[in-house]
Specification:
The complex is a heterodimer. Chain A has 12 helices and no strands. Chain A is mainly α. Chain A has one domain: MetI-like (MetI-like fold), CATH 1.10.3720.10. In chain A, α3 packs across α7 and α9 packs antiparallel against α12 (about 240-265). The longest helix of chain B has 18 residues, at about 175-195. The radius of gyration of chain B is 24 Å and the shape is globular. In chain B, the strands form 4 sheets. Chain B has a 6-stranded mixed beta sheet, sandwiched between helices. A 5-stranded mixed barrel of chain B has the order 11-12-13-20-14. In chain B, strands 15-19-16-17-18 form a 5-stranded antiparallel beta sheet, with no helix packed on it. In chain B, β7 (about 165-170), α5 and β8 (about 195-200) form a beta-alpha-beta unit. Chain B has helices spanning about 50-60, 100-110, 115-130, 145-160, 175-195, 205-210, 230-235, 240-245; strands at about 10-20, 25-35, 40-45, 65-70, 75, 85-90, 165-170, 195-200, 215-220, 220-225, 250-260, 260-265, 270-275, 285-290, 295-300, 305-315, 315-325, 330-335, 350-355, 360. Chain B has 2 domains: about 10-235, P-loop containing nucleotide triphosphate hydrolases (Rossmann fold, 3-Layer(aba) Sandwich); about 245-360, Beta Barrel (OB fold (Dihydrolipoamide Acetyltransferase, E2P)), CATH 2.40.50.140. Classes of the chains: A mainly alpha, B alpha+beta. At the A-B interface, α8 and α9 of A face β6 and α2 of B.
């Protein structure tokens, strides 16, 4: 009898794994450490200090960009999750038909098209609309973020729906529940963890976006990532490290929170 | 056992169900007509793929017939969606709602019917008592055993007092002992509630012990409908006789027919009396069926003669396999007594006598 293949016992496994973790996390650790640097350099240590956090906190541009990021993220993630839920229901609660695969591809298109292409296309498209309507508010950014967040919300919701026992809905119909009540009482409560996961993913993806936002934003519509990018161009101080550190903590906190909510619902 | 026709609860008329299109078309049900009576335990019996579950799904409303009508107390329900049919289903997988308690599951149908809360509460309590689950009403359905889930599924389907209860192989997931218990339980519930049960199974023993009447299905058609006794002792076709219990088939020449009886001359030259299946078209040669327990082995001459090939001991009885001189195989089942042996040994020359009224002429 041959021993079953165990990847852990292959030569070099430990070394490769360690290298991967170092490459992944060491830069982040350094970034966080230098956020507490008393000096003005991001590479030379000058003692411990919280002054860069204070300076970021007092920087109205940072606060402004952060709030805008959250506003866009919250609205776009909610809209994307609603659209994704409907799309997931429509693509799973149906018998396979010609063209269904094409629809999957169309929904997941933002995952495959290079962001820069979407960015340029939206820039041209929205500039026409701006001229036509005169409106230049946050709506364009929200629309763009909603569009590219849909596939991220769609995937976990669809996965959840595919694992759901269809007989449950049939049983509800058998027990006199109309299709709408079946959805409200059976499908939606069971789908909830998937919807929360989709919402969380969409929110984090929106918070993080640079390329499309950079193309679509009007003057004075910096989000936190595009603001940081602008600052780096002008020379880098540990204030960027401090902002990144807070941003990192927030993302981790949000992901953890949603993880526990969805696990409890299960 | 004469079969007393009563008022029909479900009347299936010329129902066809075709899946697929064009050349890939498959008829899951091929022009099926059957009448299921009020307050009856009716079983659809057949191997997997025979169309029994398709027929049940059409009655429940999860699918719609390609042709034909399904009448419930005289009204065609075939075009209605499931939530408008006063018919409830016990699913093979139970399909209990995992995010609700036992009591919430049972009350779900009544709630959807818009019954007042006090009525729902009383009815749920009554149902819990009926299936002996009072103690577990606040549990989640994932916290109870398979047998208990089965009871909850039954209570949930019975709570809205459906005109007809459909059961889709509900016992197949249970182990042998629990299954036997639930068979008795189901019979009791049917008796107590007076609701018509339509039960789908591939287990012939289950069908025989539980049903008032059985419809035997194969390849999308109903071959025979009758009481368990009819189906077992008066099978109409070879498939029915073969699917239910053990059977001997003999070829015989039919020399005379009248009064539901035939004179059949066996290959041994002996002529016996046999009953005739309904719908038998007179022909020269036909197949006879004889159940192993309806024949006797004799040391001397019988209706048939042959050699003992094998003896298999089963505790309550012994099966003796005989190679007939005509070349056909024949099995005799002999009740055991406490005295040693069955009285025969391998290689013995024996006669087989077929009891009076033991043979039936099949129509195919």
């Amino acid at each position: 009898m041959a021993r079953s293949f165990a990847i852990k016992h292959q030569p070099g496994f430990t070394a490769i794994a360690a290298t991967c973790f170092v490459v992944l996390y060491l830069p982040i650790v350094i970034l966080v450490v230098y956020a507490f640097n008393a000096a003005t350099s991001t590479s030379e240590w000058g003692g411990f200090s919280l002054k860069w956090f204070q300076s970021a906190w007092q920087n109205t541009q940072v606060i402004d960009a952060t709030l805008r990021s959250f506003q866009i993220g919250a609205i776009a993630a909610t809209l994307a999750t609603i659209a994704a839920t409907m799309a997931a229901l429509a693509t799973t609660r149906t018998a396979a038909y010609p063209g269904l695969t094409f629809k999957y591809a169309a929904i997941n298109q933002p995952l495959m098209v290079p962001e820069i292409v979407t960015g340029v296309a939206l820039l041209i498209f929205f500039s026409r609309i701006k001229i036509f309507t005169g409106y230049s508010g946050l709506g364009y950014l929200i629309a763009a973020h909603t569009a590219f967040c849909i596939p991220f919300a769609y995937l976990p919701i669809r996965a959840r729906l595919e694992n759901m026992d269809l007989t449950l809905e049939r049983a509800a119909a058998d027990l006199y529940a109309t299709p709408w009540r079946t959805f409200r009482r059976i499908t939606l409560p069971l789908l909830w963890p998937g919807i929360l996961a989709g919402l969380m993913l969409a929110f984090v993806i929106s918070l993080d976006d640079v390329v499309i936002t950079e193309f679509v934003k009007s003057g004075g519509q910096d989000t936190l990532p595009t603001y940081m990018l602008g600052q780096i161009r002008r020379g880098i101080t540990p204030e960027i490290n401090a902002i990144s550190t807070v941003f990192l903590l927030l993302s981790v906190a949000i992901v953890t929170l949603f993880f526990f909510i969805s696990r409890k619902r299960d | 056992m004469p079969d007393q026709p009563g008022k029909s609860a479900i009347e299936v008329r010329g129902v066809r169900k075709v899946f697929g299109t064009g050349d890939a078309q498959v008829a899951a049900l091929d022009t099926v007509s059957v009448s299921i009576r009020e307050n009856e335990f009716f079983t659809l019996l057949g191997p997997s793929g025979c169309g029994k579950t398709t027929l049940l799904r059409l009655i429940a409303g999860f699918d719609f017939p390609s042709e034909g009508e399904i009448l419930l107390h005289g009204h065609d329900i075939a075009p209605l969606p499931p939530f408008k049919r006063p018919v409830n289903t016990v699913f093979q997988s139970y399909a209990l709602f995992p995010h609700m308690t036992v009591a919430e599951n049972i009350g779900f149908g009544l709630e959807m019917l818009g019954k007042p809360k006090t009525e729902i509460k009383a009815r749920v309590a009554e149902m819990l008592k009926l299936v002996k689950m009072e103690a577990l009403s606040a549990r989640r359905t994932s916290q109870i055993s398979g047998g208990q889930q089965q009871r909850v599924a039954l209570a949930r389907a019975l709570a809205p007092q459906p005109k007809v209860l459909l059961l889709d192989e509900p016992l197949s997931a249970l182990d042998y002992k629990l299954r036997k218990e639930m068979q008795i339980e189901l019979k009791r519930l049917q008796h107590q509630t007076g609701i018509t049960f339509i039960f789908v199974t591939h287990d012939q023993e289950e069908a025989l012990t539980m049903s008032d009447r059985i419809a035997v299905m194969s390849a999308g058609k109903i071959l025979q409908v009758g009481t368990p006794w009819d189906i077992y002792d008066r099978p109409a076709e070879r498939f029915v006789a073969d699917f239910i219990g053990e059977t001997n088939f003999l070829t015989a020449a039919i020399t005379g027919i009248g009064n539901g009886k035939a004179r059949a001359t066996l290959k041994s030259g002996v002529t016996i009396d046999a009953t005739v299946a309904e719908g038998f078209q007179p022909k020269a040669n036909a197949t006879l069926v004889v159940r192993p327990e309806h024949a006797k082995l004799t040391g001397g001459k019988g209706d048939l003669s042959g050699t003992v090939e094998n003896i298999v001991y089963f505790g309550t009885d012994t099966h003796i396999h005989v190679q007939l001189d005509s070349g056909e195989a024949f099995t005799v089942r002999q009740q055991n007594t406490r005295s040693a042996g069955c009285g025969f040994e391998r290689g013995d020359k024996v006669g087989v006598s077929i009891g009076n009224d033991a043979a039936q002429v099949l129509r195919d």
